[in-house]
């Protein structure tokens, strides 16, 4: 029978480095252990939370419930043909270890998602994305356990209802399932996606466009803009890039000639939240133990020993400034617990 840790410190289990505890902490390395943990949680009638790499979460107090940390590992080849390979991967595998593995095998699809912190199990939940690619582009299947009846589920790509930083797991199935495995389809015929930002410029410096260089270019760009959570607590982008009417961009262009934006359809565009925050004067600002990163305004940081509530208050002030100046509402990307 699996035994949980009691009053378990979570500082090493969240990339903001918030010093809080969980009443119970189950680290499960098989589906069987996962089912046992759920049974115990139900028997005790306590609330629960699934915690992967802790790279998209902000704790504001001790967690008075049970945390399940899926540590299911393994990368298994389930299909191999002339065009592609399918890999079924355990939810506990570190995301970038998977990317490195696929790139070293000459398989394409995940290279633009290099160096994203977190685990495989989280990749379908919020459909992680970077440099013009999203997890949904390669995910074929997501498997796991339903919490209410402990049965196995398997959803295909369409059933996962992927969208920008969104999926069925953040909506209809929120709190109802635990992901144990994700299957990715990786191509043997590479179609490298390099149009985003200054990826092409970085590739030039590395000597040209190939799979390994795309991974390296993404790593180089991320390292210049995004703080390493081991050095400075953070959870990547704190807000989503807001979807706005194209008319707003036309209005903004009268004052700011260089407004960056990404067209979504004929009427709507995504505005970079980092730009809105920078123009609101927050970039590089520090308030007590927390602040806005100096190189990427979309990233809120903790300078050690910050309470989660301090980050929430800073986020609130930023939202207010952006609302007052641009009449745009910023939605949090990070889960506040
Ligand atoms: N910008 C500024 N000031 C800033 C930051 C950004 O003006 O301080 C403007 C720049 O014009 C820049 C544009 O915003 O060209 C876009 O910035 P960037 O390329 O850094 O990307 P982003 O839109 O801020 C998104 C993702 C990131 C992902 C990058 C690269 C979201 C919420 N964030 O950020 O994902 O790495 O694109 O593809 O969509 C994450 O989700 O945690 C994350 C880091």
Secondary structure blueprint with pairings:
Layout (H helix, E strand, L loop, with lengths): L4 E5 L11 E8 L2 H14 L3 E3 L6 E2 L4 E8 L4 E6 L3 E7 L4 H10 L24 E2 L2 E2 L4 E8 L5 E5 L20 E11 L11 H8 L4 H15 L7 E5 L5 E3 H10 L6 E2 L4 E3 L2 H7 L6 E2 L2 E3 L6 E4 L5 H19 L8 E2 L1
Parallel strand pairs: 2-5, 3-5, 4-20
Antiparallel strand pairs: 1-2, 6-7, 7-12, 8-9, 10-11, 10-12, 13-19, 14-16, 15-16, 17-18, 18-19
This protein binds uridine-diphosphate-2(N-acetylglucosaminyl) butyric acid.
Would you write up a description of this structure?
- By secondary structure, the chain is α+β, with helices and mostly antiparallel strands.
- It folds into three domains: 5-70, Uridine Diphospho-n-acetylenolpyruvylglucosamine Reductase, domain 2 (2-Layer Sandwich), CATH 3.30.43.10; 75-187, Uridine Diphospho-n-acetylenolpyruvylglucosamine Reductase, domain 3 (2-Layer Sandwich), CATH 3.30.465; 233-336, UDP-N-acetylenolpyruvoylglucosamine reductase, C-terminal domain (Uridine Diphospho-n-acetylenolpyruvylglucosamine Reductase, domain 1).
- The protein is built from seven helices and 20 strands.
- It has helices spanning 31-44, 95-104, 199-206, 211-225, 246-255, 273-279, 308-326, and strands at residues 5-9, 21-28, 48-50, 57-58, 63-70, 75-80, 84-90, 129-130, 133-134, 139-146, 152-156, 177-187, 233-237, 243-245, 262-263, 268-270, 286-287, 290-292, 299-302, 335-336.
- The strands form six sheets. The chain has a five-stranded antiparallel beta sheet with strand order 6-7-12-10-11. Strands 1-2-5-3 form a four-stranded mixed beta sheet, covered by helices on one side.
- Strand 10 and strand 11 (152-156) form a beta hairpin.
- Helix 3 (199-206) crosses helix 4.
- The protein starts with a strand and ends with a strand.
- The mean pLDDT is 95.
- Uridine-diphosphate-2(N-acetylglucosaminyl) butyric acid binds at residues 130-131, 196-197, 225, 236-237, 240-241, 260, 272, 274-275, 278, 283, 296-298, 333.
């Amino acid at each position: 029978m699996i035994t949980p840790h009691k009053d378990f410190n979570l500082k090493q289990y969240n990339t903001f480095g918030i010093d809080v505890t969980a009443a119970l902490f189950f680290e499960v390395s098989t589906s069987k252990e996962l089912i046992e943990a759920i049974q115990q949680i139900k028997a005790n009638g306590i609330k629960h939370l699934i915690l992967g790499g802790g790279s998209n979460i902000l704790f504001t107090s001790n967690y008075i419930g049970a945390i399940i940390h899926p540590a299911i590992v393994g990368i298994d080849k389930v299909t191999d043909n002339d065009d592609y390979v399918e890999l079924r991967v355990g939810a506990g595998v570190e995301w970038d270890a998977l990317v490195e593995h696929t790139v070293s095998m000459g398989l394409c699809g995940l290279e633009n998602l290099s160096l994203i912190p977190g685990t495989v199990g989280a990749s379908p939940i919020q459909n992680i994305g970077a440099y013009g690619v999203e997890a949904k582009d390669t995910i074929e299947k997501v498997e796991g356990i339903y919490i209410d009846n402990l049965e196995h589920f398997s959803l295909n790509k369409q059933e996962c209802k992927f969208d920008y930083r969104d999926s069925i797991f953040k909506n209809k199935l929120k709190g109802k399932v635990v992901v144990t495995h994700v299957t990715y389809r990786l191509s043997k015929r590479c179609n490298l996606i390099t149009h985003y930002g200054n990826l092409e410029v970085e590739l030039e410096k590395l000597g040209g466009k190939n799979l390994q260089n795309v991974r390296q270019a993404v790593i180089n760009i991320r390292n210049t803009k995004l703080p390493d959570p081991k050095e400075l607590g953070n959870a990547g982008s704190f807000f989503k890039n807001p979807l706005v009417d194209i008319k707003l961009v036309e209005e903004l262009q009268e004052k700011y000639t260089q407004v960056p934006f990404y067209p979504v359809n004929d009427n709507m565009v995504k505005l970079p939240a980092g730009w809105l925050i920078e123009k609101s004067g927050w970039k590089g600002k520090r308030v007590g133990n927390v602040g806005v990163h100096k190189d990427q305004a979309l990233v809120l940081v903790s300078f050690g020993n910050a309470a989660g509530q301090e980050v929430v208050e800073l986020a609130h002030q930023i939202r207010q400034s952006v609302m007052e100046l641009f009449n745009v509402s910023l939605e949090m990307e990070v889960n506040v617990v």
